[in-house]
Amino acid sequence: MDIGLMMDGDYREGQTQREAFDAVLTTADLAETLGFDSIWLAERHFSPPGGAALISSIGSAPLLLATAIATRTSRLRIGTAVLLLPLGHPVRLAEEVATLDHLSHGRLDLGIGRSSFPRAYDGYNIPYEESRARFREYLDIMRLAWTQSRFSYAGAFYTCQDLEVLPKPYQNPHPPLHQAAATRETFAAAGTMGLSLLVALIGTPVSELATVTAVYQAAWQTAGHPGQGDVRLRLPIYVADTQHHAQADPQPGVMPYYERLRQGYLRSPQRFESNERTARAAQLATLTYEEVLQERVVFGTPRHVTARLRTLQQALGLAGIIIEPNIGGGIALDLVARSMDLFTQEVAPRLREQA
Predict the structure, then answer these.
(1) Exposed, middle or buried, 50 (CB in 10 Å: 0-12/13-18/19+)?
(2) Which of 82, 86, 156, 307 could be stapled to 134 by a disulfide with Cβ–Cβ 3.0 to 4.6 Å?
């Protein structure tokens, strides 16, 4: 099982932007040293410290960060979680992805999506209600650019005429594609298109994972793809020497995080996906820390974390997990480092044995 580390490009109050970038690169070095299989970079726009964004971040250009990481690591796979396809141009992104695939010697995993919130679309002056249709055209064009010597395309949003796109990717036919999903429609779409699945425990509680994964796998099989598809679970993990500290250390940052998530749903324009967003906000309005511990995070001693992850691994047939080491950003950095060390030394080996 692939064990990855999620990096949002955190940008904290009192920190300079240079310090934030240095922290990203230092963490990538640490991930390779500790034995993580992969590192995953988010794409986040317009997210200054103290603002309304869910996470304050300098991660607006993840492919550039991935390129920097590729030049200073040798083993670590580098993923995006996720690139927001509708915000750019598919031909340009196809060229950049293929270039990075070569520079990393085929260590790139491409996580793609369209975002749960319209903030970035507003900033780029792109209607969010077009995001699904734009996403499909965008992906079609990138695949053609990577796999055809020349191609043309005529869609509602993008038109290409007799293009020969170079370079072609290092990996054949292209880097592995993983789609982020948070709604039933998207779970089914990912399966139909034959894409690996990225699902975040933050937005999809444990009790719903088996159901939505089954939707994905049913669509995968109906479309005639071999096997059942790969599922990677992104989830907050914190490991401490005692169960008390494992639950107490993250609490000050966790509950404000979920309140920001609730406010994000409420701020979303109600002309699209309104019922689902309203339902999510209502669910989060009454969320308790006990429910967070049960449904949305894995906090505990090495033994406890291992047992919970093994259960999820067996129930869902996970191909990998992507760890969020400091959800809410409230855990002291020395404790985060200790958690990562405990995980890699005492949890990860047992998970790999199980796989």
Answers:
(1) exposed
(2) 86
The full set of domain ranges for the chain reads 1-175
User: How many whole angstroms separate alpha carbon 71 and alpha carbon 15?
Assistant: 25
- Interatomic CA distance for residues 117 and 272, integer angstroms: 11
Query: Among candidates 132, 136, 145, 131, which has minimal Cα distance to 92?
Result: 145
CA-to-CA distance for 296 and 299, rounded, in angstroms? 10
pTM as predicted: 0.94
**CB 307: neighbour CB atoms within 10 A?**
14
d(CA 14, CA 157): 42
The H-or-E segment that residue 215 falls in is helix 206-222
3-class state of residue 317 by DSSP = coil
Is 191 in contact with 220 (CB distance < 8 Å)?
yes
Q: Do 133 and 156 touch, CB atoms closer than 8 A?
A: yes
Task: Say how far apart CA 281 and CA 160 lie, in whole Å.
Answer: 41
Query: How many C-beta neighbours within 10 Å does residue 251 have?
Result: 15
Six-digit token pair at 195?
A: 């894409």
Residue 333 CB neighbours (<10 A): 11
Q: Torsions phi, psi of 204, nearest 5?
A: -125, 105
In the chain (355 residues long), the average pLDDT of successive 10-residue segments reads 94 93 95 96 93 88 98 97 96 98 98 88 94 96 98 98 98 98 92 97 91 97 96 98 98 93 74 66 91 97 98 95 94 94 96 78
Whole-angstrom Cα distance, residue 157 to residue 210?
A: 35
Q: What is the DSSP letter of 327?
A: G
SS3 per residue for 72-130: HCCCCEEEEEEEEHHHCCHHHHHHHHHHHHHHCCCCEEEEEECCCCCHHHHHHCCCHHH
Q: Residue 80: how many CB atoms within 10 A of its CB?
A: 27
